[in-house]
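TEACHING EXERCISE
Course module: macromolecular assemblies
Task: Read the component lines below, then compare them to the predicted structure of the full complex.
Student: A.B.
Group: 4
Components provided:
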Amino acid sequence: MQNRNGLLKIKNLVKHFDISGGLLDQLAIEKGRIVRRRTTVKAVNDVSLSIMPRETLGVVGESGCGKSTLARAVLGLYPPNSGEIYYQNKRIDNLTPHKMLPYRKKMQMIFQDPYASLNPRMTVKKTLEEPVFFHNKSITATQVKEKVAEVMQQVGVDPQWADRYPHEFSGGQRQRISIARALTVDPEFIVADEPVSALDVSIQAQILNLLMEAQEKRGLTYMLITHDLSIVQHISTSVAVMYLGKICELAPTKELFESPRHPYTQALLSAVPEIGRKKTEHVKLKGEVPTPINLPSGCVFHGRCLYVNDRCIDEPPRLIRLDSGTQVACHGVEDGRL
Amino acid sequence: MSHLLEVKDLEVKFALRFGELTAIDGVSFTLDKRDRLGIVGESGAGKSVTGFAIINLLSKPGYISAGKILFEGQELNRLPEEEMRKIRGNRISMIFQDPMMTLNPVLTISTQMVETVLAHQDVSKADALDIALEKLKKVYIPSPEKRLSQYPHECSGGMRQRIVVAIALLTNPSLIIADEPSTALDVTIQAEIMDLLLELCETGDMGLILITHDLAVVSQVTEKVAVMYAGKIVETGSTEAVIHYPKHPYTQGLIKALPGSLQPGSRLNQIPGMMPTLTDIPRGCAFHPRCTISDTVCQMEVPALISVGDHDRMIACHMVGKTIP
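Instructor-supplied answer key:
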């Protein structure tokens, strides 16, 4: 890709899910003959991007755009159908589970729902100690204990509560514990999938502050998946906007919010309600998001775009780099129409 | 002048085995015809319970233990269930958060809509179908004739919520209570649903109570707002005044905690601690352990909701006149 020193690089990543079910489900009658047909959900289609060290890349999009699939594919939780993932210039998407181990320590994940992501039958101590032991077989019990206490302190959970179970904590506290779990192995790169969307506003601010603090202290790199644009605007350095499994715009945060180029980004930004702003005229899109099972031809956004022409219907746009640093996949921008 | 809806010192309790919990503690507000009121608060503040109490849908062990709910001159909390049914879903409609849960998955849209009309109006089935069609058009559903014969699962999330709004409109209610109507939806669809609600209130003769946790949504749709904390209204007034010049420390904290008002990358202003659970609401002002300007009086006495300065602006805080102008 364009950047040789990116911490994480994704090249032409594709992830499709086969949902056709058993053999009998796949059979259909067509013109008097029995045919077998597979159905696939095309969740991520040809995504390329790179994340610089200490950067926060926000990935935004509406439900079903493939942002969570992208996050999981990056960590190897879903094997990609094609494409390559590089971590510090080493390819990691084709490694055996054993060879992947050292990378697992460097790459951690924080999930959306702290009620589902913590094992209800494990005490906080057990939850936090397990990854430390797993990744450092030689470590002594006292060292682990110290490490866990230190991390708990850092995320604002009293180490004295280590013997409690997750149900004894509130949602915000639980999310702190899942952040602690990610931090105990001293990772370099964290994927956070909607880390605050299950939390109330006043707690959201606490968790976002915690994430920003940890990034400063530990020099972390984040990939932040969210649907909340105001959060992205606040803590990301760059933003990727996804639509139907494709990146339609990738830009430095300031650039994206000040001058969005892709028609979809424009519509998305105008739909965000802003406090203190009266009812505004937002860009109304035509129709609805098509299913990722039958992707539209050409530009995936063409059916809803206000500036569509014949080229958009026939030819998928490539991600092109503009002088402002913005990368955008739109024929309209490429042709100078927009 | 009589109000469309008047809630007076409403108190809702939940009778549990180990004692009673007070979910709503002395909530009062009024709503006139065509008013749009927002009720905001975090989870557990009692905003949804308030909505349910108005239409008498509290399920056991919850019950209204004190207070009055007057709607078009009738005292709702004293009405027998039979009478209440003539109002609920007829004069007052409710829209819930998740449209998939609201709609019956095994009945077609037309069956569900016709059923609602026939339950409240003495019309023929054909007329009921006409009314249904008319309302679907009103909420801008493309090819409404086709939609009528479909099942909920054949529609997208945004479309389903439009259908739910259309069902709420079937009986031409004078009040709609919308409980987090857009929380389960994407932003672009949220914007469409909010536009729709706003338009319906402005063109129709309808009042709206919008229950939500989202201050931004409230500021776009409503004229009045009530901020709730731990079962009480802590601040109320015109939406513009409350959003731009919040006075209660909790409202101030909520607004400041939102990203967007700050330099990107800077620390957000967080409110320390969390909302108390109903089992241990602090003595005095329920917010005092999290408050930055609390005093000894805050720990002892519950502050009353008193009006300050401008008309209909009220705030429940001991520090009014001291730290707060």
